[in-house]
Specification:
By secondary structure, the protein is an alpha/beta fold. It is built from 6 helices and 7 strands. The protein is globular and about 55 Å long. The structure holds inosinic acid (IMP).
Length: about 210
């Protein structure tokens, strides 16, 4: 198994992502298990910028290859908002509930067929030699009129994936975790690592 640092302070993310990468021979270690005080302010203008910022900060902190993800909810009728600001949509100290309430309020008069939205995840894997690769995962769906379900987190209670009658918060977590935007992005990384088994090991500076 090759070790890869996951640039997050959230142990739930390590648990969710690890099974997606084990087939590619990767063992994930949370960055805060190695450097407990690790922290990054997400100042990027895009999901890729933020994922790169976190991955590179974890490389600097640990001296090892690291991977990071960043996710946003993009609502067509709101010109792509909340997007990269999804966690802070209702303000710097916003709660999941506050964000969901603001989203439903903004869409109050919008009929069902115009409530299209997508979750998008960017994943950046970076190595100490400066090489990096970016992957993405997308999940298309609709924003519901009101929250439904107790599972998941964030905007899950108001997001119905295309082809489903249930919100992400009503679907079992095991189902969400195989179809989600985050799963798709990390599966793309796993496929890249399976096709390029030495990629993480190579330490030469990029030409
Ligand atoms: P992060 O980049 O994974 O921290 O996600 C940023 C924000 O997007 C979170 O604070 C949530 O509000 C939202 N979010 C990310 N992933 C999901 C998801 O799988 N379901 C619902 N909301 C999500």
């Amino acid at each position: 198994m090759t070790r890869l640092v996951l640039a997050t302070a959230n142990p739930d993310k390590v648990r969710e992502i690890e099974p997606l990468l084990t087939g590619a021979g990767v063992e994930l270690v949370g960055v805060t298990d190695m450097v407990p005080e690790w922290e990054v302010v997400e100042t990027g203008r895009t999901l890729e910028d933020n994922a790169r910022l976190k991955a590179r900060a974890a490389v600097v902190a640990t001296g090892e290859a690291a991977v990071a993800d960043d996710t946003g909810l993009f609502v067509t009728e709101l010109d792509g908002a909340p997007g990269v600001r999804s966690s802070r949509f209702a303000g710097e100290t916003a709660t999941y509930r506050g964000n969901v309430e603001l989203l439903l309020d903004r869409l109050r008069k919008v009929p069902q067929k115009r409530r299209k939205a997508k979750f998008r995840t960017a994943v950046v894997v970076a190595k100490p030699n400066g090489t990096e690769r970016t992957f993405e995962g997308v999940l298309l769906g609709y924003i519901t009129d009101s929250p439904r379900g107790d599972g998941g987190f964030g905007y899950d209670p108001v997001f119905e994936p295309c082809g489903q009658d249930l919100t992400l918060a009503e679907l079992p977590l095991s189902v969400k975790n195989t179809m989600s935007h985050r799963a798709r992005a990390f599966i793309a990384l796993a496929e890249f690592l399976m096709a390029n088994p030495d990629w993480l090991e190579v330490t030469d500076p990029p030409v």
